[in-house]
Amino acid sequence: MSVAFNRKRYVRPIKIIILLVAIFSSVIGIASHPTRAATPSGGTISTSPSSLTWQGQFFAAGVNADPSQCPPNLDPNNLQCDHFLLNIDLAPDFWLTHTGSANITITWADGSNDFDLYVYRTTDGQLVGSSTAGGGETQEQVMIQSPTPGTYEIRTVPFLVLASAYSGFANLVISNTPPVQNPSFPTGGIGFGPATVVDAQRTQGEPLAHIDQAGNVYSTGPWGFSTGQSFLSKSTDGGQTFNLISSLDLRPNISPAGGGDSDVITDDQGNLYFADLEGLASILVAVSNDGGHNWRTNNFASATPVDDRQWLAIDNGISSSASDNTLFFTYRQVPFGSQILSSPGSSGPTDLNGGLMFQNAADTEFVGSGAPCGRLTFDPVMRMLYLPCVAGNRVSIAAAHVSNGQRTGLHFTNVATPTSPGGAVGHLFSSLTTDRAGNVYVAWVDSNNNNVYVTVSKNAGNNWSPPLQVNGNPANTNVMPWAAAGANGTVDIVFYATAVRGDPNNFPSWFNNRQAAATVKWFTYFVQVQNALSATPTVYMSQASEHPTDYGQLCTGGLGCSISGGDRSLADFFSLALDKNGAAHIMYNDLTNQHHGAALYELTQNAGPTAFGTTLKGSSNTATGATDPAGDAQVPHFSLTGPGSNQPALDILSVKLSQPDISHLTITMQVSSLASLLPPAGTDGILWLTRWQFLSTGDGGEESYRIFYAGANVTAAGITSFFAGTGLSASPSGVMGDGCITNTPQNCKVIHYPAEKTETGSINTAKGTITVTVPLVDIGNPITGDTLFSVTALSKAFVKGDPLLVDADAARSFDYIMRTTTVPTNCPLGTTCKVTGGGYIYVDPQQDHGIFSIELTVDPSGRVRGKTAFVDQSINMSFRTALITSVNFSGNTVTFKGTGTANGLETSYVISVQDNDSPVPGPDHFSITLGTGYSKSGPLAGGDIEIH
Length: 948
What we know:
The chain has 948 residues and is mostly beta strands.
């Protein structure tokens, strides 16, 4: 076998495209179109006008995968590509006093067509941005951060286009804030463990963290109004594993609506209080006295309808009894303002009033000013109740002193933080917390300069310290701060941040263009401020998440984002809580999976100083496996009669990853016993699953920390199967993939784990082990040194036809680093190999066309990227690649494999191409075989293939 490089280096693209246009036009009945260039051919944007549009040319047909073949000097008549000259007219020093970007967007009508977008700086020909999503989309977008003034060529390439024009739009998004260099803060040795999967299926925005006095960690988050559900999960092992608090696999209490906003809190009696927004019409509250098994519910706890964002706060009184406990409850009654209600704490399972029936707690109907209002906080030291609300250029706080046992007649006064340094408090909620000495901290983001600030008061908000900026480089644009204070003068703060400067609402939206969104990488950051009361506080900043947690636009307009089409997948906040040792527990969303679904994770601080002044020694996040205690696989975990019995076959004891050779990965899961493989009562089978994420590509060719998995299942009839997969996302046009249920286009609600590949495995009943050995090609081909993040073993039961799996057991997460592996291609390391081309073959005796376009690149590290599209006009079948898992070069032939979609449905594929121009010129060759059984091949009747 040989690999040929630099074989053919003459270019004949213009002749080929002219031929293709002529032949395609005759086949599809399209006359020659008069427009052969963008109209107008160029334009200028500046501070005024800041935007322009143009109409791109109409392509009767085009199959061009290589933009280097059609620069203006080689394509002066726009036969292969369309060229638009964009002049960005700004002063040379403009970006010294401003921040912003130039956004270039092209759109077209039909997702069966595929245009690509490239932007070149004309002064030196440098490519400054590209967008080449993999098909099914109707938009490409490039964002250029602080573009150098001058002229840019916008090159639109018809990757595979039949009878379509496009429209172009360019605009400048400018902020008058200068790009001030942020400080650099040390980490202080603060670190976090691998991310724990809280819920492997249900996506939930704005997760709230709470830790009770027994150390149980809770998480709650809404599923959205469209589902009527919010969820509550609980960890009894300090955040290493979580179980859903529900006997229905839905939210813990039955009611007609919900899914808007949720909150959870506990009191010193261990009682559990839950609240959910019922579609803006009312607010539900629920109480459990047995840790979540049984609930009493009031669906109409709010006094009036049109309600928004409720919060709970608990006053445990000064005694250890329930008699002096008070549950405070606030919500915003639109449009009048915030109300604060109160209820006695629950006294036990027969109490129909405590935590359920509320009355006005204040001496006025409404308290506070401004909106939105952050979480209600009760300080037991100063016995103060605080409600922080955004009010223009500062945070306004409604504050009231609460006498012991007082539940009504609270007199609130408004106190305000200092003016925000940038002049505008925004990007959703501010966050208020108090430390063990009663000092009050408020954290917020200034929406003018996108920095995070904190101020502290020693006297209940009457006087404040100057605002302290706590975000340092590279956290240049920030949203959603949440604070939790510990010992006197110490506060922890988390926020999402990106190095890209600008308004997060104006970044590219993943829903519109996945590749453009992936150029803006958000991470979860953690800050600890020590000696906050002094003139020189100490600030430590650490990147808490191991990899990005989101890409692109973060719409901060609340429900308005849904109306405007913005990306509100994260919802409005995330949070942290402190355990009894002072370690921070961060509850956050990760949207970097291929579905852009708000997967729920928890990060536990494992190194460095804590908010309580202790120091954690830390441990490595990487391992080859993890153990789990026996006896914790109850099915169900929560029910009206308490937990079910432990299921030995689902009781995970350990999980281990190993590499038996350079091309396989073996997953070994051990359970308590496999003497019986009967599933739990009421279910149809057992599932053992190990899942992880690693840096791969999404289904549009974008960067993605894609979910992969391997496992086994056994049905009640004793049928065993072993499998692996990754799951396909919904297409930009809204066709649902097999990997996630969507209820609106691309809006992932339930993550699936379809058995896409049949694998080799075994069950050893004597040892209680389930072993699956998977070829690396079936799980995205991770290469040497790749990290598999958050490797987690899960055991579930399933019911046929129900997409929600029954919760049983899980093992704690760890990271696994791949040892020596095969490379998914035989392109020599250190070399770039490339295949480009387009054209058509005849697919039947009537000479109907099978039209294709290819762009495939193997980079020097051995990673593969690119895409291929194929259309069979005889049967109206459209195929697009999603993943390219292996590439083989052999002389003048290249063969590549992977998964893709045929008319929106997932399928495997094998594509082989031949470049036959030398040594004896002859027709190139194209062949495609799909897992559906479809197969076509033949010499090119028009077009060209080049192996570089």
